[in-house]
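for the writeup, i need someone to sanity check this before i put it in the appendix. the sequnce is what the collaborator sent (i think, or maybe the updated version? ugh). structure was predicted straight from it, no edits. if anything looks off just tell me and ill rerun, i have time this weekend
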Amino acid sequence: MTQNIKKSQDNPLVNAMSVDVEEYFQVSAFENHVNRKDWDNIPGRVEESIDQILLLFSSHDVKATFFTLGWIAERYPQMVRRIVDEGHELASHGWSHVRVTTQNHDEFRDDVSRAHKVLEDVSGKKIKGYRAASYSIGASNLWALDILEEAGYLYSSSIFPIKHDHYGMPEAPRFSFYPASGKLLEIPVTTVEIMGRKIPCGGGGWFRFFPYSLSSWAINHVNRVENQPAIFYFHPWEIDYNQPRQQGLGLKTKFRHYLNLKKMEERLTKLLIDHNWGRMDEVFLKD
């Protein structure tokens, strides 16, 4: 397998860069504020953000994995084809950002199978990976991993090994593992242990909240001390400071969503320079 990834002499370990491709109005925190029936009537902004991200990755010779909603791929096929044409991995984020915790077995099977088919049809590529909306696979619904394997996926990045008010499985392994029930590889988002506590360092709101130096140190620690690749994720809307502001949000939701959006691209650029990055499949899957 050929990797188009830059290396550094002091820390050659390659980490996995990923993007969760969804519109700003599709985030789980807005599900009680934006009616799904209205999605098609809201002007989209994801294409412009993806253009910006692809340019940024190209400028730093980085290949990444784009976990993309089937809903998005169906409406923006040219954007999806551009992602794969530029050498990035296309993976599934499910159909329309529904948390797995709200679905039964049949609903989840239909969701991930539909997304898998549309993404393969649009891209012409095999879809290997899946990431659940809001990391909504945990101790109560590990059956979802078996369904993913049945649907043709090779890996999942859907478990966050922390305690959070909306998700998390703190007892899960911190690094990639095969659940006992099957051959699907689960790749948890990266955490670092500090004084016996798991601290997220793999992106999202934590990357925007904590100083950049802390995130960079944590990734280096995982690489150099634990000899493990890190996984980083972000969303297109996180580099879109001018996105329309949603009204009626609680203070916690507003803080989490809009915090430091203006600084995100600058921080992301430093991250691409300071660490080595590649696609999820090339970092974690064997030939």
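Confidence is low (pLDDT under 50) at residues 1-9. The CA atoms of residues 99 and 133 lie 5 Å apart.
thx in advance!!
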